[in-house]
Design goal:
It contains five helices and 16 strands. It is mainly β. The protein has a single domain, classed as Electron Transport, Fmn-binding Protein, Chain A (Pnp Oxidase, Chain A).
Length: 200
């Protein structure tokens, strides 16, 4: 099958785009407002985009609370979601009013980051401490996207739970990383394999 995305006439019950571009890691963004309020929200349009220096980006469909806090304070944490945090992550995705503490609503303990003034999830297998480098509207054909905002951050510190390290490497079978698929579907990493890059 083929469909033109301008017309969106795919003939399926639901648009398959998000299911095609999957699995996607979940950026569980912890932030603090200038008023001191804490926020925790999951974003599935998230990823690492560079290693040296380390950069991550998340996309928000509008100026949501995480974006507002990033604009105000210039800092955020990325808390990686493991199998044990699935229910809490889902609870934190509810559309609470600004100022409502999603850590409390999700029965999570908020910890203080080391290098930034933003909260982190105690119990996450890894946390990236980030300073905002850019907040932009992505370009589309004909101009700026009408709603999306991209928040780029440089990773300045990393927390890792030592229980998920095997032989000096982060063990994905231990982290059981949760990723977003299409629709309301999620996946957990349970199996991995190595594939060496060929030499020329």
């Amino acid at each position: 099958m083929f469909y033109n995305t301008n017309e969106n006439q795919h003939g399926l019950a639901h648009d398959p785009f998000k299911a095609i571009v999957s699995p996607r890691p979940i950026g569980w963004i912890g932030s603090k407002g200038s008023d001191g309020s804490l926020n925790l929200s999951p974003y599935s349009f998230f990823n690492a985009i560079a290693d040296s220096p380390k950069l991550v980006v998340f996309a928000s469909g509008g100026r949501k609370d995480s974006v507002r806090n990033c604009e105000e304070t210039g800092e955020f944490s990325v808390n990686m979601v493991g199998h044990a945090q699935i229910d809490a992550m889902n609870q934190s995705s509810a559309a609470y009013e600004y100022g409502v503490n999603e850590f409390e609503k999700s029965d999570l303990t908020a910890g203080q980051c080391e290098l930034i003034d933003a909260p982190r999830v105690i119990g996450a297998y890894a946390v990236l401490e980030c300073k905002v480098t850019d907040i932009t509207k992505p370009k589309i054909i004909g101009g700026e996207h009408p709603a999306a905002l991209l928040v780029t951050g440089q990773v300045v510190g990393i927390h890792i739970n030592e229980d998920v390290i095997t032989n000096g490497r982060l063990d994905s079978r231990k982290t059981q990383t949760v990723s977003r698929l299409g629709y309301m579907d999620y996946a957990v990493v349970n199996d991995t394999f190595e594939l060496m890059r060929p030499k020329v």
